[in-house]
Amino acid sequence: MFIAGLLQRNSGWSFDIRSALIGAILAWIIAGILYKQRAAIKQRSAAIQGWVARIRRQLRASNEERYLKTLQEALRGLLLFTPQNPQTVFVPPHFLSPAAMPQTPEASGKLPEPVEIVYSRLLDGHSRLILTGPLTSGRTTALALLVWEIAKAGEEADPAPFSRFPLWVDMEDFTLPEEGEAVTNDALKRLAELAVKFMPQATSKFILSNLNNGPALVLVDNWETI
Question: Is it the case that residue 41 has pLDDT exceeding 60?
Answer without folding.
Answer: yes
